[in-house]
Amino acid sequence: MLDSPGLAEFMARRAQSGGSGLAFIVGGSLGLSAEVLERADFCLSLSLLTFPHQLTRLILLEQIYRACKINSGETYHK
């Protein structure tokens, strides 16, 4: 698990390393298959709680937005 500044730092490091992009995969309540996990460079947990898939996508999008705001030096709502 990362906090918002930690996610921002992770995304900034990835951008500086010259990677072609990021792909976020949201697993179901039972997690992800072993094949998907083996291919992952990094695993991120949004919470120990289980959320509906649609809500998880919204939470992740908001955290990505927040990370971009942090990395651009803008203020963000806490």
Describe the structure.
With about 80 residues, the protein is mostly helical. The protein has one domain (about 5-70). Helices cover about 50% and strands about 0% of the residues. The chain has three helices and no strands. It has helices at about 5-15, 35-40, 55-70. Helix 1 (about 5-15) crosses helix 3 (about 55-70). The longest helix is centred in the last third of the chain and has 19 residues, at about 55-70.
SSE inventory with pairings:
Layout: H1 4-16, H2 34-39, H3 53-71
Descriptive labels:
78 residues, mainly alpha, 3 helices, 49% helix
Distance between the termini: 18 Å
Number of strands: 0
Main beta-sheet strand count, sense and barrel state? none
Strand content: under 5%
Structural class: mainly alpha
Overall 3D form: globular
In total, how many domains does the architecture comprise?
Answer: 1
- Estimate the helix proportion, in percent: 40-55%
The helix/strand order is: HHH
Mean pLDDT: 90
* CA radius of gyration: 13 Å
Low-pLDDT runs: none
Count of helices?
A: 3
Summary?
The protein has helices spanning 4-16, 34-39, 53-71. It is mostly helical.
